[in-house]
Amino acid sequence: MSITLTDQDKLTLRTAAYGAVSLLSAADAAGSPHKVATDGSIALASATGPVGHVLAEKTKGAKLSSKSVAGIADQVLPALTAAMSLLKKQDPAEADNFRSIVIVAVEAATRAHKGEPSPTMAEMTRKITGALDAA
After folding, report:
1. What is the mean pLDDT of residues 38-45?
2. Distance between CA atoms of 71 and 95, rounded to whole angstroms?
3. What is the pLDDT of residue 133?
4. Which helix (H) or strand (E) holds 132?
5. Contact partners, residue 115, CB within 8 Å, separation at least 6
6. Per-residue confidence (pLDDT) for residue 123, from 0 to 100
7. How far is 97 from 110, CA to CA, in rounded Å?
8. Nearest CA to 101 among 32, 50, 25, 29?
């Protein structure tokens, strides 16, 4: 099945995926947030399928307009749920692909943290997964 995404839909997907990595990076402020962001972003850049093409587009957008973690979460968590909803309506398999892409990026980002993820990163991971599953 083919999916049709508007520019706004694509922006929602990019905001959701890259925003999830940004949230984890912010949650690891005391550790190595740049490594978290790099590893998560590499995972997103390695995505395949229609969503992979959207994430690979070099366009402006997906700007997170807050400097606080709470503000970023206010943008990203609803975007994750919205992305899943719009993809489920068009192609449930692509919704599953998007979920997998984000989960792999989250795992790559948290693996960048030395040792076990901090309680803050673990909680942020739970919130990201909850937002993906809320649709």
Report:
1. 92
2. 25
3. 96
4. helix 119-133
5. none
6. 93
7. 20
8. 50
At position 91, the amino acid (one-letter code) is D
Cβ-Cβ contacts under 8 Å for 92 (sequence gap 6 or more): none
Asked if residues 67 and 25 have their Cβ atoms less than 8 Å apart, the reply is: no
What is the predicted pLDDT for the residue at 61?
62
**Hey, what are 124's tokens?**
């942020």
- Residue 65: which of 106, 11, 101 has the closest Cα? 11
Specify the higher pLDDT residue, 29 or 127.
127
Indicate the burial class of 7 (C-beta count within 10 angstroms; 0-12, 13-18, 19 or more): exposed
Distance between CA 135 and CA 130 in Å, rounded? Answer: 9
Query: Which structure tokens are listed for 61?
Result: 């957008």
Buried b (16+ CB within 10 A) or exposed e, 92-121: eebbebbbebbbebbebbbebbeeebbebb
Alpha helix segments (H runs only) across 28-118: 33-45, 49-56, 69-90, 92-111
Backbone φ and ψ for 112, nearest 5 degrees, come out as -65, -20
